[in-house]
């Protein structure tokens, strides 16, 4: 099936089967509003992250951020060197570490009023199931 769906518990973020009415982890009631598209090897900036709830205005800001491993795009200037880390806490593989790194990049950019990052380099460290990512880049502002 190309578009597999599941239900994410809004209470504990546990991934349940699509037809689950209650969370198998904490017992919380689930509905179709909790359904998400399963993207095991891909994603965008609209993912659920445990402990992070973006409101509409925050999501709008995040949607405008430029995050690239390429050079500084036209219309932007480099303002400083920046870094962030990501840690999967031993769960969800590289995707979990990548999502955590993204959230930390968002926090960095929004908190410092950067418009994104360029020249992003990522250094992974793997210890068993635990994956840590160290990302460093150029902080950007629109010219």
Automatic annotation (TrEMBL):
It comes from Lactiplantibacillus xiangfangensis. InterPro entries: Zinc_ribbon_dom. This is Zinc-ribbon domain-containing protein. Residues 9-30 form the Zinc-ribbon domain. It comes from the Bacteria.
